[in-house]
Amino acid sequence: MLKLDSHSAGRHFLHIPGPSPVPARVLRAISYQTIDHRGPEFGQLGLAILENIKKIFKTKSPVIIYPSSGTGAWEGALVNTLSPGDLVLMYETGQFATLWKKLADRLGLKTEFIGKPGAEGWRYGVDAAKIEERLKADTAHEIKAVCVVHNETSTGVTSNIKAVRQAMDAAKHPALLLVDTISGLGSADYCHDDWGVDVTISGSQKGLMLPPGIGFNALSTKAIEASKTAKLPKAFWAWDEILESNKTGYWPTTPSTNLMYGLHEAMEMILAEGLDHVFARHQRLAKACRAAVEAWGLEIQCQDPAVYSPVLTGVVTPDGVDADQLRKLILERYNLSLGTGLGKVKGRMFRIGHLGDCNELSLLAALSGCEMGMKAFGIKLKGSGVVAAQEVLQD
Ligand SMILES: *Cc1c(COP(=O)(O)O)cnc(C)c1O
Predict the structure, then answer these.
(1) What is the CATH number of domain 13-21+275-394?
(2) Where are the domains of the chain?
């Protein structure tokens, strides 16, 4: 039988880029007794959550909270704003952009996928100039939405969303801007209102330090207007009834009561640390992680230093080294979980998550596990990544 509480000495090091470790404070909050989701206390909790979540997205507009994974929130964004056969411009940055496109195709949207061709495209962020060029050519305004992934979790590349907005404005194109920051929210700076995003999609299990099970859509006035005429079938995902119920702090269906306790607690923690401090901590850890990779003499998956992800680092394994075999050895020997290579980069890279409830020593432990594991696997390393990371962190 599978024993989920079987425990080797010491802690498990969960360094995949989501789900990320859940702090004890959040776990304790989740363990409170489940209450009536239509009772007076829940309404107060609901209102507090709906107010605080706006601070996390940096928006004054409403944020929809679904009891779903991030994929559900992707669907929510599309079905509320678009109609069957609408053309959607999507940008291939990696596996998550690819999966979102697949979902859009299945919903009956027409999708156009642009980006650098081949696996090479998975090493760069969105090129806003390409979007501008395509939108300028669309004089009939057939394109109804532009969809981009802010933090591409499969590669460790963060795209410049502000530049995408500027490109859309420069093309004077009326398409909606839909952005996935499922793995960026609460780890990488994100400004829903200032960047002019119409729908921002996110989830609970990455930077927000919660277990999986909550999905978000942050809205704009333009997105809410679009939802009134959009014709893709929608029922569970429909924003209108949720927005109505939310006015008094409730939801039309049963929210994930205990995860909502956790969300409230996690936001208290993030806001107490201060968003700017949270982002600076992630940048610092990411820098140390990259220093380690460079000291090992290995390649970082992201090829553009301007868009290195503060959330995770993709490490390309040397030719002939199966990254998944290496990950297996590291998990078995050191109880350290690293992210697998997905899609086009399967077996060619692994991912080190440094998001959410992560500090200097948790990162250094993970880097130690990687370093010992790679040596045990027979990989010739140029030098010590752990020492290089320590030097960055001692500054
Ligand atoms: C994790 C993730 C998703 C998928 O979310 P699920 O919760 O697995 O449905 C989508 N996009 C990005 C960028 C992600 O990191």
Answers:
(1) 3.90.1150.10
(2) 13-21+275-394, 24-271
* CB burial string 119-154: b at 16+ within 10 A, e below: eebbbbbbbbeebbebbeebeeeebbbbbbbbbbbb
Counting DSSP H helices and E strands in the chain, the numbers are 13, 14
pLDDT, tens only, 36-70: 999 999 999 999 999 999 999 999 999 999 999 99
In 3D, which of 362, 271, 262, 276 has the Cα closest to residue 22?
262
Question: Ligand 1 centre and the CA of 181: distance in Å?
Answer: 9
351 annotated ligand binder: yes
List of residues 6+ apart from 111 with CB closer than 8 A: 87, 88, 90, 101, 104, 105
Cβ neighbours, 10 Å, residue 328: 15
Model pLDDT for residues 175-213, shown as the tens digit of each residue: 999 999 999 999 999 999 999 999 999 999 999 999 999
> Ligand 1, atom 5: nearest CA belongs to which residue?
70
Tokens of 88: 């959607």
pTM exceeding 0.90: yes
Q: Which CATH architecture has domain 24-271?
A: 3-Layer(aba) Sandwich (3.40)
Backbone angles phi, psi at 216, to 5 degrees: -130, 145
d(CA 346, CA 334): 22
d(CA 353, CA 339): 7
Cβ atoms of 293 and 338 closer than 8 Å: no
Q: How much of the chain exceeds pLDDT 90, in percent?
A: 96
For the four alpha carbons of 166, 169, 170 and 173, in that order, the dihedral sign comes to positive
Ligand 1, pocket-test mutation among 102, 103, 153, 182, most atoms within 8 A of CB: 182
CA 172 / ligand 1 centre spacing (Å): 31
